[in-house]
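Input set for joint prediction.
Command: fold jointly, output tokens.
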Amino acid sequence: MSQLRKDPLVNRWTIIATERARRPAAFVDPQSTVTNQKNCPYCQDKASPCIDESNGVKIINSSSPILDDSKPFEPHRHGLYEAAHSYGSHEIVVESPEHIANMADLPLVQIKAVLQAYALRMQTHRKNPFIEYTLAYKNYGVAAGSRNIGHARSQIMAVSVLPMRVKDKISGAEKYFDVHERCLFCDMVSQEIKNKERVIVENEHFVVIAPFASRFPFESWVLPKFHQCDFVEGIKAQEDSLASIMKDILLRFKIGLNDPAYNYMIQTSPVKDASSYKDYYHWHIEVMPRLTRVAGFERGTGFYICPIPPEMAAAFLREVDIRA
Amino acid sequence: MSQLRKDPLVNRWTIIATERARRPAAFVDPQSTVTNQKNCPYCQDKASPCIDESNGVKIINSSSPILDDSKPFEPHRHGLYEAAHSYGSHEIVVESPEHIANMADLPLVQIKAVLQAYALRMQTHRKNPFIEYTLAYKNYGVAAGSRNIGHARSQIMAVSVLPMRVKDKISGAEKYFDVHERCLFCDMVSQEIKNKERVIVENEHFVVIAPFASRFPFESWVLPKFHQCDFVEGIKAQEDSLASIMKDILLRFKIGLNDPAYNYMIQTSPVKDASSYKDYYHWHIEVMPRLTRVAGFERGTGFYICPIPPEMAAAFLREVDIRA
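tokens >
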């Protein structure tokens, strides 16, 4: 038997395997995802010229950018279709001068510097009137869409259209606020901390939960306990706290699940009209190991099938001993 | 440089690599996806009891169903969350008595029997007043979410909630109809056949195109040339034609891309209120080889990045010689 669960934000249903759920140990990755590449371009300064550098974190332009500012974003029609130049920016954040693969293994001070670099680059891109959204994210390991180079890095994209997924989240948060006059994320934080069973770890400013309608096994959301729609404003004076909880959850993945591939995405508010989101949107980070493949059912319906209940995933991750 | 392209149905943007596009040959799968498993459960009748059998196609219940009818779909609240029993049905279509892995290698008459079995099962499930949608789909190969057994099979799901992705498609088609008083899919078929560059193959009743805003390399849509919202009605008297064009596109994948993993999903209209969709919805099949991994940018935005322009993918698939 399985259970259907609805994500309260975007109304997306997930099918959660319960009785037939796979045990957490069944997801432990049989092989490590990262192999070292010789002649690492990020060690040897062979990569693109540096845009910015501070505290050992380097920002460079992607060598194969999927967004650039060579032409403006001007949609034009092709019959019933619409296309435009892929305007924006695509930067790589080289997270450390050391050749270390997994952010989980970086010192706290280095993770803090990476988070600060995200905020600084976002601030810069927001000054561009053609930018609607900035996304900082990481692909770690081949299964997460990264190449095997073995040098920790993440990416920052600045795009000229508001992404559909951000729109859906904002619209869901607004609807909840209209009914309850409260932020959905704040309510979620309270309920999860009170309920405990989906909490993986928490500190003074943040809590990491396995979301109720998890799409993926061991999916984890890093939720700020204090209401703020914007990542850049949100981490001010809380960088140490965020660095510490990010390292914690990434170490739990690494130790508990044998260094799996993973993605994380910082979900902040749109660049424009920030004042209209400030009451009901709440920035957060989605972190997800990549242990299963999305199949035809997910593609055909938009539903997800999660092979382990989030309560079981949270209990497993809580018990991982990260004091190595 | 890349191009942003908007899907006219669901307004989803895709970033299409153009100048930096990978050449089609770069996607050819280095290894065959299917290895044979000894003691195939589908050969040895060790699988679940047969629900239906005709023309060598067997319908069985999934041995690990993610939907079942043991309890009704009755949503209940957990604080701000909502959950329900995962009501519905989950059936496996064993496509042939022979141990053949890829539908591309089945005789036409067998593919036709599979399509007829989909229609028959859909008709049965629709009589259940608690069913809102029926999805027939296939996962072929590990990268597509299937196990390596080497015996062609597909799946039929009947679900008690209308999937988000189906809702989005219907809402997009309705908006287009409201403005143009025409079916978006019919207009797409006309434009694509006139334009030719994204057409992979066509016959009397169907055309296969690489969609303008392709999400994945070599993504292909099988579009009926005649307007009909419903798969069950739509294939009547056209089963031979559909079987022939399905075999054709699957052979092009197999020969041109070295037997890659793939999914297909039959996108038909919802079970209820069929009369309200009939003017503007148009059934179709999405077919997609699984050659790349979705990464953090896609997960964080809902955008997709397609590393090859659909025009180049279509030209490559058109030229594959399938008369082996």
